[in-house]
Amino acid sequence: MSDAVSKRRKVQQTNVQQALLVETSCSKSSIARILNTLHDSGVLVEGALRDPRIRSIRGDLTRSAAAVGQAMTPFGPLINTMTLPTRPAMRWDYISPMALIYKLSQLSTGFCALMLGVIGALRPNEPLRIVLFCDECRPGNVLRPDKGRATQHLLWTFANFPEWLLVRDQGWFTFGVVRSAAIASLPGGISNVMKRVVHCFDDFAATGGAISSNGHVIFKAKVWGFLGDTKGLKEIFGSKGHSGFRICLRCKNVCRFLDEQIAEHSYLVGLRCPQRHRFDVCSDAEVYEMVDELERVAVARPAGLKEMQQTFGLNYEPEGILFDRTLRGVVRPASGWYHDWMHVTSVSGCANVELEQVLHTLSRCGIRFETISMYFAEFVLPKSHGKVNPDWFTTKRIGRGQDKDGWKGFAAEILTVVPIMNIFLQDVVRPLRVIDERVIECFALLDRILKLCMLGPGKAAQHIDLLEATIDQHAELFAAVHGAVIKPKFHFLFHVVDHARDLGRLLSCFVTERRHRMVKAPSAYIYNQFERTLIASQLSSIVGRFATAIFEPTYLENPSEVTGDIAAAFRTVALTGPVLSSTVAHLLCGCVRAGDLVMTVDRSVHEASHFIQVVLGGLPTVWVCLKTRSHLGGRRYSVEHVNAYFEEADNVIAPLMWGRDGDSISIVLPPASALW
Fold first, then answer.
1. Helices H, strands E: what count in the chain?
2. What is the DSSP track for 129-181?
3. Alpha-carbon distance 261 to 58, whole Å?
């Protein structure tokens, strides 16, 4: 065999091995046994495996994964190592941000073109804005009493990305993973880790990163803030959180545990205060003044340290991120603290609490949970959203009424239940006049808040004044009718708009929570060198996915080429390449499947039949075949369609939920209706 043929075969073997590591969620040993069995059965082509023995195959897979991390870029290898001062000290592998962006721009022409567009949109000397995220995920049994395999997953993104990319997995990059059990012995905990992570982005701001496009295109980027839930942000910044008198670093005068002692018109306000204008906003410099005071008291008067920590709402953590003076121009503890609207509203949040209160109010008025379940059973969800769950309104989901965690359900379920419940209150309950009108109005405002947040990171930020006004109106009503069950997230909801104003984007954790799946699957079968093996697996997965990823706002899933009349009709216009068809499309409004009802920009309702993709002017364009439903007034539409035509997919604003209404259907208005 010639050297050229041998080298080509080795490359092919390596590519196959890397593809298996990316596409499968089983261990290397399992992959090796499967390949060995296929080889012994004569299924594999000759030369597919260097050595068919299980041990050799597993070694090849390990070396293939390691080779990705050892690949060199102008910014060094893709995987770097730092030492964490745990007990004992731990060598921690992480993915170098600058090297990763450069490598991905080499692998994907689509990503490279996207980055060029993002960089080209910057003003002179303007950096890209980096947002960091850290959260704990639990592979395996989430009910284990010990930490087990609980893992901190660190992600980051550029807030300048188009909003359609910020809500997709490819828009967020893994920095590193580390077991929670290892962090437990680290002084300062996760705050210490994040301090070191921020330093790894220093060169982005100083010398700049680069993408590979006919040479090197240089750009600069700066850490802008931290996205997370209440627990994650508390751990990053070392705040007291719910256990301190001061629960919010953005407000100087909001106190907990003192609601009964605070006078009505005093400077201090309680957690239940629904009036935004009474909050005294704290600056980043003022937070650092408190940090300096903690350092002084820890040395001069240690006995008073505990009381001062309670008063300031900050822990004295010398190894924490706020106590690193070199980061004071980078880390912004007040303005760079981004509360995620998903956790604030929908994870034991404001929506959960209010939904449970409304359900108990209806129950006391004689409207049984079974009646509500029957009403919901008439609704059909978009196919990618699943189906109406018959146990949504059972005792498994509904507490006793004073439970401040509220209705028990996933965040995605909240986004389904709230708009349908709002229709139930408006169409069924309001005419009966059996409950306080303020309860119905308050819930309608909650529905509008969620709809505004669901518009997308960019569009929601464009309407931030409307969102702020709606939150303020809702807070006044909620405090009046449900004041007994107010929890800290009631106050944090006020600050969701601060996050959007500072960043220019209203980010949520839906996408980052989905990214946890990439960590959970491989970590279930890793037993040795957990962090090193897992980060190599993550990098292989990222690189493999980017090599085939589609960086377009709209695209088809598993398309097939079309011939015949449809193809001939599209070829009457100037297009190049094949005509592709699919029953599933990823559009600006999310995933839409054939059979879903959708609304277009002219507010007409249609059934999506199938999707076509063609190349017009060098750009891929998606079209959708729509079967129009007749409008019968209000939210009612016909069951049968009246005509069918093709529409550009960008004109579809949302897939719709709908319910049966006699001989017609009634739709649930989409998020865009919050602007009407």
1. 24, 26
2. EEEEEEEEE--S-TT-SS-TT-EEEEEEEETTS-HHHHTSGGGSEEEEEEEHH
3. 66
pLDDT of residue 8: 45
Closest CA to 272 of 499, 496, 482: 482
- Contact between 447 and 470 under an 8 Å Cβ cutoff? The reply is no
Is residue 633's pLDDT more than 60? yes
| Distance of alpha carbon 99 from alpha carbon 109, whole angstroms | 17
Q: Which of 366, 371, 378, 357 is nearest to 440 (CA)?
A: 357
Average pLDDT for 638-649: 92
pLDDT at 409: 93
Phi, psi of 333 (to 5 degrees): -70, -20
**How far, in Å, are 141, 254, 482 from residue 358 at the CA level?**
33, 28, 9
- pTM of the predicted structure, to 2 decimals: 0.91
End-to-end CA distance of the chain: 71
Residue that has been written with the tokens 């087990």 in this structure: 148
Residues of the chain above pLDDT 90, percent: 64
AA letter at 185? S
- Each residue of 599-615: b (16+ CB within 10 Å) or e? bbeeeebbbbbbbbbbe
Residue 482 reports pLDDT greater than 60:
yes
Please give the helix or strand (H or E) that residue 576 lies within, else none: strand 576-582
Nearest CA-CA partner of 90 in 155, 201, 184: 184
Burial label for 125, CB within 10 Å (0-12, 13-18, 19+), is exposed
What distance in Å separates the CA atoms of residue 191 and residue 469, rounded to the nearest whole number? 34
Chain CA centroid to CA 559, Å = 27
Residue 159 CA to its chain's centroid (Å):
13
Q: How far is CA 626 from CA 490, 606, 613, 664, in A?
A: 42, 6, 15, 18
| pLDDT band of 55, cuts 50, 70, 90 | confident
d(CA 343, CA 234): 14
Contact between 659 and 666 (Cβ < 8 Å):
yes
Q: What is the structure's pLDDT at 1?
A: 47
Listed by start position, the domains of the chain span: 3-68, 76-238+325-340+509-548, 239-316, 346-503, 555-675
* pLDDT (0 to 100) of residue 11: 43
Give the pLDDT score at 143. 63
Is it the case that residue 5 has pLDDT exceeding 50? no
Cβ neighbour number for residue 476 with a 10 Å cutoff: 14
Given a contact cutoff of 8 angstroms between Cβ atoms, the answer to whether 562 and 577 are in contact is: no
Rounded to whole angstroms, how far apart are CA atoms 139 and 300?
Answer: 45
Q: At what angle do helices 464-482 and 496-503 cross, to 10 degrees?
A: 170
The most confident of the ranges 296-305, 385-394, 439-448 is 439-448
